[in-house]
Write a structure and sequence with these properties.
This protein is an alpha/beta fold. It contains seven helices and seven strands; from the N terminus they run βαβαααβαβαββαβ.
């Protein structure tokens, strides 16, 4: 079966659209666990393999049981980043780009709470304006690939791409 459900135009239309910089793929899968994968592929048993492979690729993986615990861990990560505890680079800014709060009220609450100590940009126009100065991006994974330790983020929206690729540090909720 086709895991990624995309509709693509004919080859000539595709090339023409690419040259014009137009959107050329359409995401039609809305619920990855239900639509793209069998229930046996979305399972806790893959966590250890994902963590091992992601860590091998220089990621730091933290497991939390819910959004409340995730918020505490996120605050800890941000404090450690500011102190230079993860590498030699001390993050000089308190600007954060963050996506996913519109779809998840729990994330919106976390972003609102972060706003007490940081400047958190969640609006796509603010994200575009501050993309060069923000040192941290917080994004949401569509799913993870245990075999490679990879995450897959939605690349349809500009702000999701910018948030996950441009800041020095990318924190991803899975």
């Amino acid at each position: 079966g086709n895991i990624l459900k995309y509709e693509v135009t004919a080859v000539c239309d595709l090339l023409q659209a690419m040259c014009k910089g137009e959107l050329i793929v359409k995401k039609v899968c809305r619920d990855w666990p239900k639509e793209a994968f069998g229930s046996g592929l979305v399972d806790e048993c893959y966590y250890d393999e994902f963590e091992k492979n992601a860590t091998t690729a220089a990621a730091k993986v933290f497991k939390v049981k819910d959004f409340a615990e995730g918020e505490v861990k996120l605050q800890e990560i941000l404090k450690n980043l500011a102190a230079g505890k993860y590498d030699d680079k001390v993050l000089p800014t308190k600007e954060i780009l963050a996506v996913g709060g519109e779809e998840r009220p729990e994330l919106k609450a976390i972003y609102d709470n972060l706003g007490k100590d940081y400047t958190v940009f969640t609006d796509k126009f603010d994200i575009a304006k501050h993309k060069a100065s923000a040192e941290v991006g917080i994004s949401v994974a569509e799913f993870c690939i245990a075999e490679s330790g990879s995450i897959v983020v939605d690349n349809k929206s500009y702000e999701a791409r910018v948030t996950s690729m441009l800041p020095y540090t990318n924190i991803v909720f899975v």
